[in-house]
Amino acid sequence: MIKILKNIFINEDDILFIDRCDRKTLIHTSSIIYETYLPVKEIEKELSSNFIKINKALIVNKTHIKRIEGSKYILDNNEIIWGAVRKAGYHRRLMKELKGYKFIKK
């Protein structure tokens, strides 16, 4: 469980991804989007290894990734997230970390 507000907790398994927009952190689940002013970095510290940071403002739950096509992440609810990264080295390291998961095309 992750505490996002004074009395609001979210189960990690329910989180699809977390992103940052207009000074707010948005926590996306299949049913609702929670808004908080907590920085992504602070939320990231509380997350398990099931989450991977795609770029500075985007964290994705690996268990909800259906497939990856380049920098496009397709989630199990068919939502598409663009995780473009600026540095090729970071992208290679990310793909190496995800290697072996069912959603990576070999």
Name of the CATH first level: Mainly Beta
Q: Which percent range describes the beta-strand content?
A: 35-45%
| Overall average pLDDT | 81
Q: List the secondary-structure elements in sequence, H or E.
A: EEEEEHEEEEEH
Written description of the protein model:
The chain has one domain (2-98): LytTr DNA-binding domain (OB fold (Dihydrolipoamide Acetyltransferase, E2P), Beta Barrel), CATH 2.40.50.1020. The chain is 17% helix and 42% strand. The protein is an alpha+beta fold and 106 residues long. The termini are far apart.
Briefly, what is this?
This protein has helices at 40-46, 88-98; strands at residues 2-5, 8-10, 15-21, 24-29, 33-36, 51-55, 58-61, 65-69, 72-75, 80-82. With 106 residues, the chain is α+β, with helices and mostly antiparallel strands. It is globular and about 40 Å long.
